[in-house]
Amino acid sequence: MNSLLHSSTPLLPFPPPAYNSLAATSTGKLPNTTLRILANTTSERKSKGKTDDYHSTLKALNSKGRFPRKSLGQHYMVNDSVNEELIAAGNVKEGDIVLEIGPGTGSLTDMLVNAGATVLAIEKDPYMASLVSERFPDIERVKVLEEDFTKCHIRSHMSSILSCKSPTDGNSPYAKVVANIPFNISTEVVKQLLPMGDIFSEVILLLQDEAALRLVDSSLKSSEYRPINIFVNFYSDPEYKIKVSRTSFFPQPKVDAAVVAFKLKKPADYPRVSSIKSFFSLVNCAFNEKRKMLRKSLQHVCPAPDIEAALCAIDLPPTTRRTHSR
Q1: What is the rounded distance in angstroms from the CA atom of residue 243 to the CA atom of residue 256?
Q2: Is residue 263 exposed (0-12), middle (13-18) or buried (19+ Cβ within 10 Å)?
Q3: For the chain, what percentages of helix, strand and coil (3-state, to nearest 5) are there?
Q4: Which end of the chain is more exposed for a tag (fewer CB within 10 A), N or C?
Q5: Where along this sequence does the record place binding of S-adenosyl-L-methionine (predicted)?
Q6: 217 assigned to a ligand binding site
């Protein structure tokens, strides 16, 4: 289904995450001054009764001599309450099989395991993959793969795990996705996972707040409506759950985030179209040149008379452009 977004115009602008002024040393380790500042911040937050994971996150990073890498869009979660919200949104329970993308230091992984789930964690950064593996050395319910999610064969990995699940254990035959993903791969993750309703029942993601709001917008009158909205609603029922403050991350990005839940549709429940590939090809053509009349934009997909007849059937004139509104 990657044909959805072949337009030259970005559909969901996810700019590279902005990093704060805290700098890494030439060795990549967290500077001692940084550790002291954040340790004091941790104490202040705890004294105010706020749940956080600053200490364990910083300790884990420093143990590997690592600093979050901008090229990988790494922003680590330092607020356990957000992880709890992610797990609650996915209704994770004992016996569930969960895919986690970008486990970082393993704070969310730990909560998933404590909830009774079996976790497949995919981590591109070899240092962080090693850290998570070392954190759960004797737990069979945690498997860490050092791979780039955007290039791995996730269907093959998940099918293998699900095939080992007993059909009589009383649990769902489907897996779930619960992840705090790098913002810069959000579109790719959504494109890859949502068409997999035969594998996953739910996809719970932490996304940039502004992008999350646009992604779940199903209003045809919205100026922000894009092919990605059609894609999302074709394959799922999306729901905006909660807004997450940027202060919940380290390093702190310049934008807030949000938890979004996608309840995936099973293939039998997809909208009825003769060909999914042709349908999205038509959608892309319709959106590519918004100033052209639709009968011109879609002429490579179907004959102009057919387009005019379709427009007439929904009470639109044959001169309709994409910017037309009733």
Answers
A1: 7
A2: middle
A3: 40, 15, 45
A4: C
A5: 75, 77, 102, 123, 148, 180
A6: no
Instruction: Please say if the pLDDT value at position 3 is more than 90.
Output: no
Contacts of 166 (CB under 8 A, 6+ apart): none
**pLDDT, tens digit, 9 for 90 and up, residues 63-92:** 556 665 555 556 778 888 999 999 999 999
Closest by Cα among 231, 189, 187, 167 to 99: 189
Residue pair 97/154 in contact (Cβ under 8 Å)? The answer is no
Beta bridge partner(s), residue 263: 202, 237
Place of tokens 């009825």: 272
Report the C-alpha gap between 274 and 78 in whole angstroms: 47
Q: Give me the amino acid identity at 205.
A: L
Measured distance CA(45)–CA(261) in Å, rounded: 28
Q: How far, rounded to the nearest angstrom, does the alpha carbon of residue 4 sit from its chain's CA centroid?
A: 17
Residue 55 is assigned to a ligand binding site: no
DSSP string across 28-83: SPPPHHHHHHHHHHHHHHHHTT----HHHHHHHHHHTT----GGGT--EE--HHHH
8 A C-beta contact, residue 200 and residue 190 = no
CA separation for the pair 94, 116 (Å, rounded): 4
44 pLDDT higher than 80: no
> For residue 107, what are the CA distances in angstroms to 20, 45, 169, 281?
22, 18, 28, 41
Residue 75 known to bind ligand: yes
Structure tokens that stand for 291 in this block: 């100033």
77 is in an annotated binding site: yes
